[in-house]
């Protein structure tokens, strides 16, 4: 059997696609990776929040999947909108990498040690809002580009520190550059952060059995709860909504965060539920956030 994987051409995206390929090849499957340029790749000089486009990094890949020119799409799960196109489904979710955000500073200073007015690069509104809550005296700058590009911008002095997802830094071998890890209850991660999404056509009896062994049950349950919370709130990956779910002692625990852009109003909610119904847990945490005022924050955006 031959499987064609669709992937973005960035270094991290190709690492992820090759990781999936290696595991499929070890099961005697022939695999080809097809690079597909997405809208997000083309809009390098536009802040993501100003694009107004949903699914910036997956739209073209999903179109190829729906058309049958590829058999499997490998995404960073945090880029996958909760409302997938008709005919496409989330097939499997492999075991998650480190879910936390990290700081890389130019001179090795931790976040609390950065001087007032220090420039911190990140294009994520979710990160900016929570970090402003911790340090309102810092300047947050938009930062686009792949990991290599961002590190070069830091090294040449465009900013004093950058904040990134630990998962990508680990996968590309830059763990030694990390200055500090942020605890998940300090800077709550993006929905699905650190996890991969293996997207297929609905009812594809050829591909699903091939990728099923890659599924990690605890990770899949966790991201189902996180995505259910996001869906209930009606937000997307470019809105300052955060969530982190884990399976503990046979139960699923979910923490959710909604914040305003200035970081002055950061709303948090948390709940536990049996692992049988992750979507119910997501809805429950979302309702708690809405009761605390999340609706007004989201509408203001």
Summarize the structure.
The chain has 301 residues and is α/β, with parallel strands linked by helices. It contains eleven helices and 13 strands. The protein folds into three domains: 1-94 and 195-215, 3-Layer(aba) Sandwich (D-Maltodextrin-Binding Protein, domain 2), CATH 3.40.190.10; 101-182, 3-Layer(aba) Sandwich (D-Maltodextrin-Binding Protein, domain 2); 216-301, Double Stranded RNA Binding Domain, CATH 3.30.160.40.
Describe the structure in your own words.
There is one protein chain. With 301 residues, this protein is α/β, with parallel strands linked by helices. The chain is 33% helix and 24% strand. The protein contains eleven helices and 13 strands. The strands form three sheets. A five-stranded mixed β-sheet has the order 2-1-3-10-4, with helices on both faces. Strand 11 and strand 12 form a beta hairpin. Helix 9 runs parallel beside helix 10. The protein is globular and about 60 Å long. It starts with a strand and ends with a helix.
What is the element layout, followed by pairings?
Elements: E1 2-7, H1 11-25, E2 30-35, H2 39-42, H3 48-51, H4 59-67, E3 72-76, E4 88-92, E5 101-105, E6 119-121, H5 125-134, E7 139-141, H6 147-155, E8 161-165, H7 166-171, E9 180-182, E10 196-201, H8 208-211, H9 217-233, E11 241-248, E12 251-259, E13 266-274, H10 278-291, H11 294-300
Helix pairs in contact: 9-10
């Amino acid at each position: 059997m031959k499987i064609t994987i669709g992937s973005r051409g960035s270094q991290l995206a190709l690492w992820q696609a090759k990781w999936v390929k290696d595991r499929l090849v070890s099961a005697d499957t022939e695999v080809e990776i097809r690079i597909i340029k997405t809208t997000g790749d083309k809009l390098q000089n536009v802040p993501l929040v100003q694009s107004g486009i949903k699914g910036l990094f997956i739209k073209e890949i999903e179109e190829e999947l729906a058309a049958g020119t590829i058999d499997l799409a490998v995404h960073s799960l945090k880029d996958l909108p909760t409302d997938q196109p008709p005919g496409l489904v989330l097939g499997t979710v492999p075991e998650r990498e480190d879910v936390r955000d990290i700081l890389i500073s130019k001179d090795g200073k931790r976040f609390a040690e950065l001087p007032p007015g220090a420039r911190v690069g990140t294009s994520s509104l979710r990160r900016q809002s929570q970090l402003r809550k911790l340090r309102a005296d810092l300047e947050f700058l938009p930062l686009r580009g792949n990991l290599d590009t961002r590190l070069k911008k830091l090294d040449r002095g465009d900013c004093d520190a950058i904040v990134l997802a630990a998962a990508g830094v680990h996968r590309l071998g830059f763990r030694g550059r990390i200055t500090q890890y942020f605890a998940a209850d300090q800077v709550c991660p993006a929905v699905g952060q650190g996890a991969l999404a293996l997207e297929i056509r609905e009812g594809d009896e050829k591909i699903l059995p091939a990728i099923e062994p890659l599924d990690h049950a605890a990770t899949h349950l966790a991201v189902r709860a996180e995505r259910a919370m996001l869906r209930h709130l009606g937000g997307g990956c470019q809105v300052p909504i955060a969530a982190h779910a884990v399976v503990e002692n046979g139960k699923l625990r979910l923490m959710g965060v909604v914040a305003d852009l200035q970081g002055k109003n950061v709303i948090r909610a948390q709940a536990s539920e049996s692992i049988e119904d992750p979507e119910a847990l997501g809805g429950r945490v979302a309702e708690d956030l809405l009761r605390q005022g999340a609706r007004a924050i989201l509408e203001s955006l």
